[in-house]
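Customer escalation, tier 2.

The customer says the design service returned an amino acid string that "doesn't look like it belongs to this structure." They asked us to rerun it and document both sides in this ticket. The original structure tokens are below, unchanged.
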């Protein structure tokens, strides 16, 4: 089965499924905890902002994912520091 994911906005993911041998795919929107997607920066000890390399990368794009042995899916993406929409969990 092929599985792809992308952001609908900062509190929903779109999951696309394409079963092996099928000529069609399906998708659905999945709610996730909102994350902040503002400007990102992180200075190294010498003052270099190593996150500037993300400047040309699609904002908050899903950058990785795995399927766990029990069938759960874990996805990774970037988030800026602060809170999503000024509320909720803070990201450092």
């Amino acid at each position: 089965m092929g599985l792809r994911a992308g952001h609908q906005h900062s509190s929903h993911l779109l999951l696309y499924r394409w079963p092996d041998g099928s000529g069609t795919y399906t998708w659905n929107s999945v709610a996730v905890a909102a994350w902040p997607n503002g400007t990102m920066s992180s200075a190294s000890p010498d003052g270099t902002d190593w996150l500037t390399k993300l400047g040309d990368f699609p904002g908050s794009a899903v950058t990785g994912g795995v399927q766990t042995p029990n069938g759960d899916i874990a996805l990774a993406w970037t988030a800026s520091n602060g809170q999503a929409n000024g509320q909720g969990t803070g990201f450092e």
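Tier 2 assessment: The sequence is consistent with the input. The chain has one domain: 2-83. Residues 18 and 61 are 20 Å apart (CA to CA). Sent an explanation to the customer and offered a walkthrough call.
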